[in-house]
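step 4 of 6: structure.
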Amino acid sequence: MIRVQREDFDLGAEVAALTRGNHEIGGLAVFVGLVRDRVGEENLGAMTLEHYPGMTEKALARIEEEANRRWPLEASLVIHRVGRLEPGEQIVLVAAASAHRQAAFEACQFLIDWLKTKAPFWKQEETASGPKWVEARAGDDEAAKRWQAQDPDAAQ
Amino acid sequence: MKLLYFAWLKVKIGVAAEEVALPPEVGTVAELLDWLEARGPGYAEALADRSALGVAVNQEYARPEEPVGPDDEVALFPPVTGG
């Protein structure tokens, strides 16, 4: 399941709903991204997340499908917030549940790594020196590349 | 054709979306970018670094050689930074 929303999410309620009633699940891995209060040497006032409505949902659904193709998942969830977020707020939740922990851990990491390099979101940071669009990090590309042995996009 | 711009491309070009009538010489993503680049300094600046430009045709990532037509929705954007 994927969701793009302005409002915050309740981590406990989300993971409880994800696993409820499915006793094939033996392991659940969850990643939550939070807004930090520092950007390099500067204090961050807030960040605003822009996205491409329509394409965002398609891209997230495709990433989730790919995770389900690669690992035997019993359940998966991606929630990404948009709009203005302040330090300490939750930005993103990805969760993967499987019979055993290895698939859950790997799928969870895959979901966030691919989301960061494929889903059309852009962050703008508010600092004392003015608003600034966040640049893509090489480390994110490297993290995503770990999974590209079977990336249908990269194979073309 | 419907064009959409995101993040700093939107700022440099000055609009978030526009409808354009394509000239006959524009048949691919690369030709569309060449044509757009010549429309003004904001476009030229926004499209200067093609290697850092993301392009989606009808909400799917597209390569320079892919065809585009008058009924397509084409989005241009910088590298994504979500998560």
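step 5 of 6: annotate
 - The beta strands of chain A are 2-5, 27-34, 38-39, 42-51, 73-81, 83-85, 90-98, 121-127, 130-133.
 - The interface with chain B takes residues 33, 49-52, 54-55, 58, 80, 91-92, 112, 115-124, 133-137, 140, 153, 156 of chain A (CB under 8 Å).
step 6 of 6: archive
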